[in-house]
Every structure is written in structure tokens, then in C-alpha cells.
UniProtKB/TrEMBL annotation:
Keywords carried by this UniProt record: Signal
Name of this chain's protein: MetA-pathway of phenol degradation
Database matches in InterPro entries: FApF (IPR025737)
Signal peptide residue numbers: 1-23
Amino acid sequence: MAIALRWMMCLLVLATPIRIVHAQSQDAQDVDPQFDRPGISFASWSLPAGSVAWEQGLPDATWQHDGEAHVFQAVADSHLRIGMGHGLELQLIGSPYAFQRLSGGGSRQNAHGQGDGALALKWTPTAPSAAWSWAVLGTHKLASGDATFGTQGRAEQLAVTVTRSLDGNQSLTGSVARDLQASGNGWLTSLSYGFPIGSRVAGYLQAGSGSGVDRTRVAGGGVTMLLRHRVQLDGWLLRGLDRNSPDWQAGFGVSMALTRGR
């Protein structure tokens, strides 16, 4: 299973340039895609039927220290999103490459491998007002990762995100997620404020808090830049606010609308 997932991700990456050329030849007047990257939460919009999007971390990283021990981890998360119509969206998720460095006490250990794969289904019901949107996302992780980076036993998550559009292309987004894992359960909530910086550049501020297996407190933000209408670049940074959280989390990524759909 792990080898199959890795090769699937590699083949999809190799096919991306061809699909981007096709996507860019489509009508440039269609609506800008709503990507899930970046942030703790996810977009409260699903892709229309026939649309396909690729979202790739380049990578996303964490830094944490506990006494003399320092841990650095970088993961290249990949999301393939497929619009199915009627507000439904299928997501194929994988981490084809991950790296970890553990140092302290005069020693250093490096580990390379891959993280778990996952299957997810997003549903976006019709909101009662154009100013509001919301979505539900259910995720089932596949125990396909290496020991250092994978999840042991079952792992499922059910999450809800709600967005309130404000004047001037601003927005408020709140989310709550319930994690069910073999090692325990947890809750994770987040609140973010999005705002425009330019015609193609936007920023956001975000805070997150979790309990149980998700015990954490973080705050930060990020920036996105939309290129050629269908390609988005992003950068983000989170600061841990307590000893249960990584000191820093940061990442760069690219998201691409591969096909327009209908």
C-alpha cells in the first residue's frame, strides 16, 4: 500500500505541467478557485463537478525543543481534490516524502520516509445567505506511513468550517474538528481573519487551540498570491504558545486548478 501511494503521487506530479497548460487554455473569466491551503482549517467551498485541483507543500515544517533535545521535521503533503457535483468533493491525500532531524546531547539522528495516506470527503450544503458558507469534511487515514512519520492504528477526523464574508473582500472563518485515534481522541478549533493586500495577494491571521491528542495553542498567519488565475503560491507561519505546541511551524506551497470542470 505504501509503495503504491508513493508511485501514485509521483505520477500525478509528473502529469501536472501538462494539465496546467490545458487548464490555462480554458476561459480566463471563470471564478477564481478556492483552495484549502494554507491554514489550520479548510475552504468552505467544494470544487464544481469535473474540477480537479492539486495542492502541494514544498514543504511544511515544524521546530520543537524539549530541554537539550531539538526536533526538526519537514513533510511534503500532497492533496488531490476532485469535484463530484452536488456539493461533494473527493480528496486523495498523501505525504510522499518526510524528513526528521533529532539533535541534542552531542548527537544527531536523521530519518527519511513517508507519512500516512488518507481519503477524505467534503460536503458543502447550500447556505441560507450569500454572505455565509460552510462545509463538512470527513477524513480516514490509511496506515501507510513509515514508523517515524505514520499513525499507529485507526485515525479518523470529522471537521466543520464556517465562513462569514465581510465588506472589502474580508472574511471571518471558524472551524472545529473532532479526532478519533487509537492513541486517544481530541478537539481542535481555529479562528481566522482574511483580508486583501492587493488584487492578487491576500493575507490572514489565525489562532488555534486543541485538547486531548490535539492539545496545542498556536497563533500566526500567512499570505497567498494567485498567479495566472489558476495557480496559487502560499507562505505561512505559526508560533506555539505553550509547551505542548511546536515552537514554530512554517511552510511554503503551491496549489493548482488542473481542470475547470462545469
